[in-house]
Amino acid sequence: MAIKAASPCYPIDSNYNNSYISQNISHVHNEMTEDILLSGYAKLPSNTTAEELYKNLVIVVEVNPKTGIIDRVECSLATRLAREFVSSLMVDYNLEKGINPLIKLFEEKYVGSARKAIITALKVLNERYLAYKKSV
């Protein structure tokens, strides 16, 4: 699978560029008609840069609830490259296929120290997606 260009996966922290949000909020609102926002959390491994910065990994996705397709991704990994890589693997993935193919993709492609945390966060995110689908 070729890695596709993805929207930037910005860090989630107190230094987040709020001007990006204010400049793009109308654009996001117009495209986000019925989309839902889901998140998955997991503890990061100790003695990693991301753990020093955030303690926990969070992956946040915008999903079209009618199709299950992930439109956008943000996560709290330490480097921009890692955040963009995670986003590139997740954008356009269909959660209706189940989470196992996405987990397998991360097991094959992501060799960083946060892999286990990413997989745990994906499982939590999937549980929230399934709970949402059951509730509507």
Write up this protein:
There is one protein chain. The chain has helices spanning 18-31, 49-54, 80-90, 100-109, 115-135; strands spanning 36-43, 56-63, 70-75. It is built from five helices and three strands, in the order αβαββααα. The model is unreliable at 1-10 and 13-27 (pLDDT under 50). Helix 4 (100-109) packs antiparallel against helix 5. It has one domain (36-135): Sufe protein. Chain: A (Alpha-Beta Complex), CATH 3.90.1010.10.
Largest sheet report: 3 strands, antiparallel
The CATH C-level name is Alpha Beta
Helical content (DSSP H or I, runs of 4+)? 40-55%
Any idea how many domains? 1
Mean pLDDT across the residues is 82
As residue ranges, the low-confidence spans are 1-10, 13-27
Helical stretch count?
A: 5
Series of H and E elements: HEHEEHHH
CATH topology: Sufe protein. Chain: A
| SS-based class | alpha+beta
Looking at the overall shape, the CATH architecture is: Alpha-Beta Complex
Trace the largest sheet across and list its strands.
1-2-3
Strand content is 15-25%
Distance between the first and last residues' Cα? 33 Å
Count of DSSP E strands? 3
Radius of gyration: 15 Å
The coarse overall form would be globular
